[in-house]
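TASK: fixed-backbone design
INPUT:
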């Protein structure tokens, strides 16, 4: 089944043209064939009129009057005589007849002169049919040439007629995920107006829904952070008090749960914010500066576990993208590397440029990710079997959504080298030579 509207129109109109051409061509062929037969009869009559008024008499058949048409003149005399064919022709009345002469079917014209002598103008039937068929086929040639030309014209007309629809589709495909401005209806065909009105109505409802979602996120951030912060402060106050070892263990478990809840809340709010907020105007920031700031924030945690975090290369590169979201993406990647690197391990960070792309590469010496899980690490709330209980499963999902919205990419792969294991994250972002504003 053909789903394309362009294909349906083209095939439908092509079938109509071909059928019309076939029917018209059949009628044209029959008409041209009959006209050619009548024209050859007229030639016989004209030759007969010339021979009737000619003072010359032929005692032998006069063949080859028309080399192409193979018309012959046969003198039959005043009385039946000669061959059987001549006697049979002599017996026919004046006028046109279908007969046989010299073993071939012929079209014969009989005439009688004033002195009583008779003659016959003959033409072989197969020659007449061949000439008539040739003329009829020549009549069909313009129709046969017209059909493909019409098909080409139809294809061009359909393409130009549907171009506004294709342009609208390209406009929608080229838009950013957060661009919900209405489609321009000016100049669009009237048939597309109901469709455009429906799409613009849907975009208006989406804009209202996103505004409502942003307000909800703001309210949720305030309402949820406040009690979590209060619980965290109360736990810290309890930590200063003297208590038995069993109570201390329970307090540590409480503080761990509060940290996990706070981290999950922050990640959920960040994920919703990335989905709901518009990036606005494109910013230009130094990627190395952002990355160094993130590393400086994470150094205390890495030092507490004797993890060596450093740069293998740190080129000064300007990248396109909002600073807040770029920092969030880099922070999630480096936090994951530090989190899953065992005590005494190492995290290497490289910042360099490849053509028009700025690259941030992060390698750790952790256990890596099972091959069966590596294709799912960007799914929200997915946690590998080797992950710790502290993770929320949202970090890489947030990174994925950020880089896709700024035309970047993220790649996660296990390090397959001798005497070394770990994970390699490669973040690619649009680079620019323009300095930050």
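OUTPUT:
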């Amino acid at each position: 089944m053909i789903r394309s509207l362009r294909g349906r129109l083209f095939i439908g109109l092509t079938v109509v043209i071909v059928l019309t051409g076939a029917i018209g061509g059949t009628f044209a062929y029959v008409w041209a064939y009959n006209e050619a037969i009548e024209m050859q009869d007229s030639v016989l009559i004209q030759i007969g009129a010339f021979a009737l008024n000619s003072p010359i008499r032929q005692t032998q058949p006069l063949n080859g009057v028309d080399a192409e048409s193979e018309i012959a003149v046969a003198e039959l005399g005043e009385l039946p005589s000669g061959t059987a064919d001549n006697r049979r022709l002599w017996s026919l009345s004046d006028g046109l007849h279908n007969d046989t002469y010299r073993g071939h079917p012929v079209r014969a014209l009989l005439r009688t002169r004033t002195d009583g002598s008779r003659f016959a103008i003959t033409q072989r039937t197969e020659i007449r049919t061949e000439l008539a068929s040739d003329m009829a086929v020549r009549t069909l040639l313009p129709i046969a040439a017209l059909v493909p030309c019409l098909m080409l014209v139809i294809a061009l007309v359909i393409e130009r007629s549907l171009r506004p629809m294709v342009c609208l589709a390209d406009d929608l495909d080229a838009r950013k995920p957060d661009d919900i401005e209405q489609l321009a209806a000016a100049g669009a065909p009237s048939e597309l107006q109901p469709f455009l009105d429906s799409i613009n109505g849907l975009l208006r409802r989406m804009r209202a829904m996103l505004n409502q979602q942003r307000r909800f996120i703001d309210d949720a951030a305030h309402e949820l952070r406040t009690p979590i912060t209060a619980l965290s402060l109360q736990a810290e106050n309890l930590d200063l008090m003297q208590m038995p070892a069993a109570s201390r263990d329970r307090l540590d478990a409480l503080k761990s749960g509060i940290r996990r809840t706070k981290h999950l809340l922050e990640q959920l709010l960040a994920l919703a914010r990335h989905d709901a907020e518009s990036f606005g105007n494109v910013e230009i920031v130094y990627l190395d500066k952002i990355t160094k700031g993130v590393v400086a924030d994470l150094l205390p945690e890495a030092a507490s576990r004797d993890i060596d975090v450093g740069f293998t290369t740190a080129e000064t590169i300007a990248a396109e993208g909002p600073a807040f979201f770029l920092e969030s993406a880099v922070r999630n990647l480096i936090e994951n590397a530090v989190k899953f690197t065992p005590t005494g391990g190492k995290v290497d960070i490289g910042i360099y440029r490849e053509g028009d792309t700025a690259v941030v590469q992060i390698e750790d010496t952790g256990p890596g990710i099972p091959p069966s899980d590596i294709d799912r690490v960007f799914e929200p709330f997915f946690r590998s079997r080797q992950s710790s209980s502290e993770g929320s499963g949202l970090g890489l999902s947030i990174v994925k959504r950020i880089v896709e919205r700024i035309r970047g990419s993220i790649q996660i792969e296990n390090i397959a080298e001798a005497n070394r294991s770990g994970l390699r994250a490669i973040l690619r972002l649009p680079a620019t030579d323009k300095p930050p504003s």
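COMMENT: The chain has three domains: 5-158, 192-270, 280-432.
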